[in-house]
Design brief:
Length: 529
């Protein structure tokens, strides 16, 4: 037996491995917690990804049922996390998984390995557990990495190289990096090291090997968002739009097609595709057609918004009305709206399904106009604005586009209306969070316009007992910005919390990943326009 592997007898830890605080020293107790986690996930129908609060609640129940000390709650939370993801991980092929091992598993006194930019290059000398684990990873077909931290995992997931991961780490690190693991929204199993200290550590080797070997045929393979995003972006090419919409016949159509091709993250059609694929298990009929309709609606709203807000630039270029004039831009926006409705009306679906989609799109369009109208009416006669009034405006002008995208995708998959309330709560929180971040970004750039309501203005009015501030210098106030950032974090978290009732692991993971993609972008912007 490897000196760094924990013993597998019933009670005592291996002499070389005194477990860290927070992890039971007895293998029997660790097994009891693992069995309790498995039972808890089954009874509670815990659907991943689970938030930190959900994990803690389940873990406390597991520890209490086992009659063990509350200090084991963090360890039990990792076990609950692993059990929740077990089936989803089992559906991912071995060659689409990453094995991530900590460098501290090596024999620090005799290890002949060297390090490069990615991590440790094992010489396979057999002195530590790393050799055995890498050999099994190679046999199964894993991508394997001996490195510290989750940066490598995130990079590989975002590049589409892997769809799941198995790893080992000390308990304290797992507690710190859990929010990042949860935000990734893909299947993952983490085996806690029994002893930390970053030198000659140890783990339950059999548990890690068991996790690596999990594989079951017939389970639905969880969709991955990065390939979906790339695929959706590929639909917006001149040839792709001509194929779907027919060749552009005149200047107006050519301008509209060019506008559809403009940059952006395509989050709305991506949401549509995520909902459809997660609920249907594959591509329902006309999915591409429906997703392009969603983008037509969005791009039309941008044309009109830019005119109404008097904005000169978008996507690093002149806005449509600055390039072609207001009359032409208005007409192009209207054309894009009609194209969206045409695509839905002509979708090769049952008549009842088309009717539901058209109704959902019309309801969303109406709500968006009411929200935008409330903002425009305020700009005609600016005055004090309360936080509730501002959030109502933001709910109306932003959330409907997200909600419509999700509803259309779900309806394409034949889903019923039970998801509507969940989509509404998720979209409302997502839309408000984005608008708050947009306000903070404009304030940081010195571009916060005095002509429209903003979170900093609403907070300044609140502090002035409902009166307008004396000047627009409030945008530079640190206290107001801190409060705005706290509200941004709150609504971002609400969008994640809204997913808790969702019983579909694939959809829950994809929608969680969308939140991370929008708000956790490396540049801090995560453009969703």
């Amino acid at each position: 037996m490897n000196p760094q592997s924990a013993e597998n007898s019933a009670d005592a830890p291996a002499p070389q491995c005194e477990t860290q605080r927070g992890i039971p020293s007895s293998r029997r107790q660790r097994d009891r917690l693992a069995e309790g986690a498995r039972a808890r996930v089954a009874i509670a129908s815990a659907v991943p990804p689970l938030t930190l609060a959900e994990l803690e609640a389940h873990a406390r129940a597991v520890v209490a049922e086992a009659g063990l000390d509350e200090s084991y709650v963090p360890y039990a939370a990792v076990l609950v996390h692993n059990e929740a993801w077990r089936d989803a991980l089992s559906a991912v092929p071995f060659d689409r998984r990453l094995l991530l091992l900590p460098q501290c598993l090596r024999d620090a006194d005799a290890c002949p390995a060297v390090f490069d930019g990615l991590g440790l290059l094992c010489r396979r000398c057999g002195r530590c557990a790393i050799d055995e684990l890498l050999a099994e990873a190679e046999r199964l077909g894993y991508v394997a990495l001996v490195s510290e931290g989750t940066g490598a995992v995130t990079a590989m997931i975002e590049s589409g190289q892997i769809e799941a991961f198995v790893g080992a780490s000390c308990l304290s690190s797992l507690q710190e990096i859990f929010p990042r693991i949860e935000a990734v929204g893909v299947p993952g199993v983490a085996i806690p090291l029994l002893r930390d200290g970053c030198r000659n550590t140890a783990l339950d080797l059999d548990r890690l090997l068991e996790a690596m070997r999990l594989r079951r045929d017939g389970l639905p393979r969880p969709p991955v968002i990065e390939p979906i995003r790339r695929e959706v972006e590929g639909w917006f090419t001149p040839a792709g739009l001509d194929e779907l919409l027919g060749p552009a016949r005149d200047t107006t159509e050519r301008i509209a097609r060019d506008w559809l091709l403009r940059a952006g993250k395509r989050w709305r059609p991506v949401l549509c595709v995520c909902a459809a694929r997660a609920l249907a298990g594959d591509d329902p009929p006309a999915l591409r057609q429906i997703a392009v309709a969603v983008e037509c609606f969005h791009k039309a709203s941008l044309v009109h918004d830019d005119i109404e807000d008097g904005d000169d630039h978008r996507y690093g270029d002149l806005t449509l009305h600055c390039r072609y004039g207001v009359p032409v831009a208005l007409n192009v926006g209207d054309l894009l709206l009609s194209e969206g409705y045409r695509l839905l009306a002509e979708a090769p679906l049952p008549e009842a399904a088309r009717a539901r989609m058209l109704r959902a799109a019309a309801e969303g369009h109406r709500q968006l106009c009411i929200g935008q109208g409330a903002e425009l009416c305020w700009t005609r006669s600016p005055g004090p604005i309360s936080l509730d009034e501002l959030l109502d405006i933001y709910t109306g002008k932003t959330a409907p586009a997200f909600e419509v995208a999700l509803r259309l995708g779900a309806q394409a998959a034949g889903a019923d209306e039970e998801l509507c309330a969940l989509f509404r709560d998720y979209s409302r929180a997502l839309g408000i969070a984005y608008q708050l971040r947009d306000d903070l970004s404009d304030a940081s750039d010195g571009d916060l316009p005095a002509r429209r309501p903003s979170i900093l203005l609403a907070l300044a009015c609140e502090q002035s007992a409902g009166a307008m501030p004396d000047s627009w210098n409030f945008a530079a106030r640190t206290d107001l910005r801190d409060r705005a950032r706290a509200l941004l974090d709150d609504f971002r978290n609400r969008s994640v919390a809204a997913l808790a009732p969702l019983r579909n692991t694939a959809l829950k993971g994809l929608l969680r990943r969308v939140v991370a993609g929008i708000f956790d972008a490396p540049d801090g912007k995560g453009n969703i326009a």
